[in-house]
Amino acid sequence: VTNAGEPSTKASLIVVSNRLPFVLIRNPKTDELERRASAGGLVTAVCPVVIKGSGLWVGWSGIHLKDPNEAIPESNPNDQTPTAGLKSEQVVSVNIDSKIFDSYYNGCCNKIFWPLFHSMPGRANFGGEHWHDYVTVNKHFAVRTIEALEKCLAKNQGSEKSPPIVWIHDYHLMLAANWVREHAEEKNLPCRLAFFLHIPFPPWDIFRLLPWSDELLQGMLGCDLVGFHIQDYCLNFVDCCQRNLGCRVDRNNLLVEHGGRTVRVRPLPIGIPYERFVNLATTAPKVLKTSKMQIILGVDRLDYTKGLVHRLMAFEALLLKYPQHKEKVSLLQISVPSRTDVKEYRELKEEVDQLVGRINGRFTTANWAPIRYIYDYVSQDELAALYRDAAVCLVTPLRDGMNLVAKEFVACQINEVPGVLVISPFAGAGEMMHEALLCNPYEVNEAAEVIHRALTMPEDERVLRMARLRRREAECDVSHWMRCFLKAVGALEMDDVGTTIM
Ligand code: GDG
């Protein structure tokens, strides 16, 4: 396997996502805008390719600017993150009225698409003007993307480059591609268009519940390439194109004919910056002071898709069925506050608070509490130390596009005696991480059995399973994902193509 580092392309990359790879903050003393970098895996992998190929990034900066022409600041000179090299001229910020943005983001994306795409239609609320605002915002993104494309083409005029790649991300922007294509064709601007969905794509009988299912499919089919994490989501999408729109499809080769063009659909499972997590785990100081207690770790945004309530009930069932774990095992659950503007998320917080209180009230002794519950964000160092020293990591979503926590846990398992990963088959990661223990979160008693098996697994079995899990994540890391994408879109120079998918 060759690890070619940053892939080089003959084309510039224009990334379009709801958020820019950094947020802007207004310094209250100087009233100047400043960048705060983001260190997510996606940014780590994608930003260097944008920078290297003189590309651009289109997105919202996290702040509603009164003057939309206010200049984007350059990065802070001390900034060591991957976005540091992204010059302000490579950033196209999208400014939208805050009320419309809230309706698009919370009303449409988080209250309709998020539950529906996670096959939880009962939680979706189709009412209101949210769809209208979603259309408005997507159109605005398309206009800004065309401006970015024009800028990119003007800059690279005369060089030997192939057409820029416009890469649109996620369920916030499912309509934008079609308008980008129309404008680009009208203005004779060459480009290749790609889309990647970070969440599951549901089966047809769920997807068709959306009143605007046709429009969404047509939006995505504006692309030349549509990527999902796993094959099942690809097949669901192809199925929907055939059954909703009557498109001719090839399920074996994942092709959809639409508007006289053939759209390629591809599974592109995302990875993590594996080496970064290994390094963090190697240097992070110990967080857990007592080594006698076995720690079961959970790390999630506080989201109803992550299966927190079921997980807590499974842990309670474990303590009832296997009381030998009392005072020996503790569940450390980190729940990061998320979407607190949305009622369902506030209600979930109440429910989890109460459940944690009830279970702790039931089992706590003078020297031990069964659950330690952190409702906060912990630093990456602390997170890596917890991943490294936990005996078991529970990744038990009811539904999840991929799930990066499972992969990060595995990367941080550098101790001689490794821990055990328990994973739900309803996460994209559960499709690939075959050596983990599978656990159906809906079967609470069975889940308790799986946790017991993880806690009591013989050392040699843990070593074997973890070694295989780590090998896969090391090879299929986020740079590998980036190369697979560029290869799929036909933009990779041949030197960079020597990678395997396991
Ligand atoms: C979407 C899809 C898909 C969490 N708590 C802390 C913290 N985190 C970091 C983790 C991980 C990330 O947040 C969560 O990633 P997930 O993949 O689990 O979940 P989503 O946010 O739902 O992401 C998902 C992903 O997109 C990528 O395509 O896998 O299926 O839903 O990186 O480390 N980081 C720190 N402190 C915390 O307390 N530092």
Give the C-alpha Rg: 23 Å
Percent of residues in helices comes to 40-55%
Weakly predicted, low-confidence segments: 494-502
Give the neighbour order of strands across the main sheet. Answer: 5-4-1-6-7-8-11-10-9
Structural class: alpha/beta
Apparent shape: globular
The hetero compounds bound to this protein are: GDP-alpha-D-glucose
Give an account of the 3D structure:
This protein is an alpha/beta fold and 502 residues long. It has 16 helices and 17 strands. It has helices spanning 41-52, 98-117, 130-155, 176-186, 204-207, 213-220, 231-245, 274-283, 308-321, 343-363, 380-389, 404-411, 428-432, 444-455, 459-475, 478-488; strands at residues 11-19, 22-26, 33-37, 56-60, 91-93, 162-169, 192-196, 225-228, 249-250, 255-258, 261-267, 294-301, 329-336, 371-374, 392-395, 420-423, 437-438. The strands form three sheets. The chain has a nine-stranded mixed β-sheet with strand order 5-4-1-6-7-8-11-10-9, sandwiched between helices. A six-stranded parallel β-sheet has the order 14-13-12-15-16-17, with helices on both faces. A two-stranded antiparallel ribbon has the order 2-3. Helix 1 packs across helix 16, helix 6 (213-220) packs across helix 7 (231-245) and helix 9 (308-321) packs across helix 14 (444-455). The protein is globular, with a radius of gyration of 23 Å. The chain starts with 10 loop residues before the first strand and ends in a 14-residue tail after the last helix. GDP-alpha-D-glucose binds at residues 198-199, 270, 299, 301, 334, 336, 377-380, 383, 400-405, 408. Residues 198-199, 270, 299, 301, 334, 336, 377-380, 383, 400-405, 408 line the site of GDP-alpha-D-glucose. One of its GO terms (cellular component) is cytosol. In the C-terminal section; belongs to the trehalose phosphatase family. In the N-terminal section; belongs to the glycosyltransferase 20 family. One of its GO terms (molecular function) is alpha,alpha-trehalose-phosphate synthase (UDP-forming) activity.
